[in-house]
Amino acid sequence: MLYMTSAFTQAKPAGSNVEPLSWLEAAGYIKPISPGCIALLPFGTLVLERLTEKLREFAREKGFWELALPLLQRREIWEESGRHERYRHFLAETVLADGHNYVINPTQEEAVLDLMRRICIRPARLPQRLFQIGERIRNEIRPAHGLLRGRSFILADFYAIAADAASMNREADMLEATLLHLMDWCGLSVERGIYATTPLGVPACSFWIKTCTRQCDVHRCTICGRSYRFTRSVSESCPGCGGPLEDISAAEIGDVVRTGTVLAERMGVATGTPRAFVQVAVAGIGLSRLIQFLAERYSDADGLAWPFHLAPLHVHVIPTVDRSVEAQELGERLSAEGFRVYAENRNQSFGRIFVDADMIGLPVRVVLGRRTMTGTFDVRLRRSREEFTAGYSQLCERMRQLSKKEVL
Ligand SMILES: [Zn+2]
Q1: In this structure, are 196 and 331 located in the same domain?
Q2: What confidence tens digit (pLDDT) does each residue in 245-289 have?
Q3: Which end of the chain has fewer beta carbons closer than 10 Å to its terminal beta carbon, N or C?
Q4: Domain annotation covers residue 244
Q5: CA quadruple 286, 288, 292, 293: dihedral positive or negative?
Q6: Residues, CB within 5 angstroms of ligand 1 (ion)
Q7: For the chain, what is the domain count?
C-alpha cells in the first residue's frame, strides 16, 4: 500500500534554533487545537502506531492482557478511594442524562480495582497483569510545553494485581524493566529518579529524560549519581549519601508506583480466606509526550530525521512528471517488500518538495529525476545525508541493511 501526499505539511519555520514542537507542527505531525489539546495528524498517528505496536509486543511477552475500559468512570468510585476530594480540581467531570456524575478517565486505578471486585478473583489467579492504551483527560490549570503537559493526552497504563507485598514488588520491578526496555528501543537515555514524596505515601519512581524543556523538578546527586523527583519541597542534599544535588532540566516520561494495599483497602478489594487486600503496582508511560522527546532526539537543522524503526514511513518517493508511472511501480514493489512508502504526487517545485522531505524526515529519499536513466534512482539517506545512485536491487539491499542496523 502506498501512502499518498498528506495535506498537513506547513511552511518551514524560520530561524536557526527551531524547537522540536515547531518541527512536528511544520512537518504535519501535530496541530494544537485549544490549550492543552493537540491533534495528532497522519504522521503523528503513524509514529504513535510504531510506539504502541512495540509496547504491546513487550507487554504481551511479559504476560500482560490489554483492556479497553470505559472513558466514563462513576464518581462514587473516586469518592470511595478518597481521591475525589484530593484531586477534585484536577478532574474533568460530567453529568449524563441519568443524572449521575461521571469522571472522564484521568487514570484508572479506581476503575481497575472496581473491575477486580466485580469479577470474583481467586488468589490462585494472581498476579493478574493488565494494561490499557488510550486517551486521558485532566483539568490541567496551566497546560504547557506542547505535548508534555496537556489536558488531553495518550497514556499507556499498566496494573499488576498481586496477592502479597513480595509479589507486588517483583511485578513493580518488571514494570520498571519494561519501561526501560521501551525507552532503550527508542534510543532515549532515561534515568530513574526516586519520588521524594508521593500523594499516597507509597514508594514511587519517576523515569526522566534530560530535555531542552524543563517540565518537572529533578535533582541529581553529584557524588552517588542518584536522582530525586520533587513535587513540593526541595532538599539541599542527597537523602542517600548527603552529597550536593544539582538541578536538572528534565521531563518525565513515565512512573512506577508501588501502591500496595492503600487503594484496595479504601475500596474493599480483597481475596482469599481469610480475606486479604490485594496489592497493586502501577506504571504509566506518556505516549503522546514521547513523540515530543523523540522529535528532540531525532532532529537537526533541516527538520526531523527518523531512524528506520521509529519512522512513520520508510521511504519518500519523488518523481519528475515523465517518470511518475515508473515511480508508482517502484512504490508498489517496495511496499510488497514490506517497506512503507510515501509517494509524492503534488504539483510543486522540486525545491519545495525537498525542503518538505527534509522536514518530514523519512529515513530514505528516492528521486526519479530527468538525469538518471529508467531503472536507476537518486537515493539520499536522511540521517547520514549520504547520497548515491542505485538500481532497484541495490536500493532494496541498502534499505534492508538500514532496517537491521537501526532496530535496537
Ligand atoms: Zn548521593
Answers
A1: no
A2: 888 888 999 999 999 999 999 999 999 989 999 999 999 999 999
A3: N
A4: no
A5: positive
A6: 221, 223-224, 238, 240-241, 243
A7: 2
